[in-house]
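Q: How do we represent a protein-ligand complex in a form that can be generated token by token?
A: Start from the inputs.
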Amino acid sequence: MKLLILNGPNLNLLGVREPEIYGNGTYADLCKLIEAHAAAIGAEIEIRQTNHEGVLVDWIQEARGKFDGIVLNPAAYTHTSVALLDAVLAAGVPTVEVHLSDPDRREPFRRVSYVRPACVACVKGRGPEGYLEAMNLLKLKIDS
Ligand code: DQA
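Then emit the structure tokens for the protein with DQA bound:
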């Protein structure tokens, strides 16, 4: 099982940005946690982060035929990007939307997720553990 873990804008600043919302763990800490879990569940993974919407679109498109599942935290693009919705639909790779915080309990503009209708599940408000939950959900789906 090959999983692509994609992170959108400003997630590289975890540990620095709004720790009261996102916690004190750094992006490197998040990657280590994901890598350890991947080893535990026998998944091959690639973890990527970009601040650019089009780069996320390219990566989602490239996942077709190469990865069995995508864990996607589109960050702020969640709430703005039809292009990401279209990319997930076009790629046809099972995708789980993940958020460290729970955007539905924050400002009203965060309550819209453009990508959600294209995703097989959404895990939100569970901090870094949410990525692991998303990986488990994909494993269940791919193994079934
Ligand atoms: C986020 C939530 C988004 O609303 C926000 O723009 C982010 C991070 C999260 O992981 O909680 O950058 O996706």
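The domain at 2-72+82-97+122-143 is CATH 3.40.50.9100 (Rossmann fold). The two ends are 12 Å apart (CA to CA).
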